[in-house]
Amino acid sequence: MLDEEKQLWERGLTHIAGIDEVGRGCLFGDVVAAAVVLPAGLVLPDVNDSKKLSEKKREQLYEQIMEEAVAVGLGIVSVAEIERLNIKQAARLAMKQAVEALEVPPDFLLVDAEKVDVNVPQLALVHGDARSQSIAAASIIAKVTRDRMCETWDREYPVYGLAVHKGYGTKRHREMLLRHGPTPLHRKLFIRNIMAEAEQQEQQEQQLQLDWGDTV
């Protein structure tokens, strides 16, 4: 988890920012990115890909990272911007915002499988959140931040179960979406196939009822 960082530290680059985003595959809500600069030489043994950690462990590590980090930056891109840009560009914009929000200018970026549109040397690592402590720390900050946003959204739209599935397309989320329709924070481009399938099924059921009436 520190191989990339060690090589950069040996080159005299001390402010290494890990970058990751959360929420790219959700049906609901903003996309969130984090940039985290940890002190050179710091080892956080429990830090790992946020998806591999329990919610309780993520919360504990969030507090530890926020306490230990040299700098933390957040980027949040709204549903309206996701619809306007597309999700890939929105995620990249959130990453850019996160880097620009850092109070300490980074010497180098380690990015989870993306390129950030800033004038800073960088390296994209596939599955970076499982290969770099800095990226993993960013994934935890982004994940906890967005999960807390989902808890707030859940109080505003309680029928969808957002606090549980965090906006992803689970069976329950899809069922509630079909039953209650989309909210202003649902990503219209993401749910159009779900809604189109439901409309088609409703039309088929109506046609069956008409056909059955004609045979009686």
Automatic annotation (TrEMBL):
GO terms for molecular function: manganese ion binding; RNA binding; RNA-DNA hybrid ribonuclease activity. Residues 14-202 form the RNase H type-2 domain. It catalyses: Endonucleolytic cleavage to 5'-phosphomonoester. Manganese or magnesium. Binds 1 divalent metal ion per monomer in the absence of substrate. May bind a second metal ion after substrate binding. PROSITE patterns: RNASE_H_2 (PS51975). GO terms for cellular component: cytoplasm; ribonuclease H2 complex. The keyword Hydrolase applies. It is found in: Cytoplasm. Keywords: Cytoplasm, Endonuclease, Hydrolase, Manganese, Metal-binding, Nuclease. It is an enzyme of class 3 (hydrolase). Its cofactor is Mg(2+); Mn(2+). GO terms for biological process: DNA replication, removal of RNA primer; mismatch repair. This is Ribonuclease HII. It comes from Paenibacillus athensensis. The lineage of its organism: Bacteria, Bacillati, Bacillota, Bacilli, Bacillales.
